[in-house]
Automatic annotation (TrEMBL):
SUPFAM superfamilies: P-loop containing nucleoside triphosphate hydrolases. GO terms for molecular function: ATP binding; ATP hydrolysis activity. This is AAA+ ATPase domain-containing protein. It comes from Aegilops tauschii subsp. strangulata. GO terms for cellular component: cytoplasm.
């Protein structure tokens, strides 16, 4: 504004709803996210190839519960139990958790396995308490424990006394479903056999979903999702369906397929 407005022009000025809508997109950041502890991931279901049945289950137990809580309360359905994703490494467990948070529009807190362990007495338990307290402040929030087996090893094993104290605190927090309303816990592991049985009972991480290696059709979907998300130019001569059904692709995980796509620019794709 190089020239000041006159009296009549000032009287015609007004703030409209479009200004608020535009400002809230990029300019104004929620204060609870400024510390960088929580965020809303940009991973969508389009980035996850296959696993249609698992998508439906998570949509029913988490996404719709966050979007339409009044319906669940009306029928007295409590979906606060945690979810455990287990299966071979590289099958997209972390990607699924981020896609759930994005679809639900919920905050996402990512706990990376052993970072909660501390050799000083009481620090590990305090870390778990702070994590759940911040999740309650950011509700609705999805609390994702990656490589949760590092924090929940079976009790009684030699040298596991630090993990036992942390596990006991985690069990207490998971039991307080009435105190963590709006906080949904998802764990991911490829070693479900080493997790303490107390964590796997109903009411804690009672909903267990196996994330398998992709089938031929799912490998095709994963390759399409990788190409679309990475915006790679692909020749019309490339037949992704035929490539996904090749014997060499059997038992390849999603991470393996992503690695193939990453090397395609160097001539290793197909």
């Amino acid at each position: 504004m190089k020239h000041p407005l006159d009296k009549h022009e000032v009287q015609r000025l007004s703030i409209i709803m479009d200004y608020f809508e535009e400002a809230i997109k990029d300019i104004v950041q929620p204060s609870l996210r400024r510390e960088g502890f929580s965020s809303v991931p940009d991973v969508t279901w389009a980035c996850v190839g296959g696993l249609d049945s698992l998508k439906k289950e998570l949509n029913r137990s988490i996404v719709r519960c966050i979007k339409y809580p009044e319906f669940y309360k009306k029928f007295g359905v409590n979906m606060q139990a945690g979810v455990l994703l287990f299966g071979p490494p590289g099958c997209g467990k972390t990607l699924i958790a981020k896609a759930v948070a994005h679809d639900a529009g919920a905050n996402f807190i990512h706990i990376k396995g052993p970072e909660g362990l501390n050799k000083y007495v009481g620090e590990s338990e305090a870390y778990i308490r702070r994590t759940f307290a911040r999740a309650r402040l950011n509700s609705p929030c999805i609390l994702f424990f990656d490589e949760i087996d590092a924090l929940t090893t079976k009790r009684g094993m030699e040298g596991a006394w630090v993990v036992e104290r942390l596990l006991n605190q985690l069990l207490i927090e998971l039991d307080g479903a009435d105190q963590r309303e709006g906080v949904y816990v998802i764990g991911a592991t490829n070693r479900i056999d080493v997790i303490d049985d107390a964590l796997l009972r109903p009411g804690r991480l009672g909903q267990k979903y196996f994330v398998p290696l992709p089938s031929a059709n799912e490998r095709h979907s994963i390759l399409k999702a990788l190409i679309c998300s990475q915006r790679k130019p692909v020749s019309c001569t490339v037949d992704l369906d035929a490539f996904a059904r090749r014997a060499e692709c059997n038992n390849l995980s999603g991470a393996d397929l992503a690695s193939l796509g990453g090397r395609s620019s160097q001539g290793s794709f197909g």
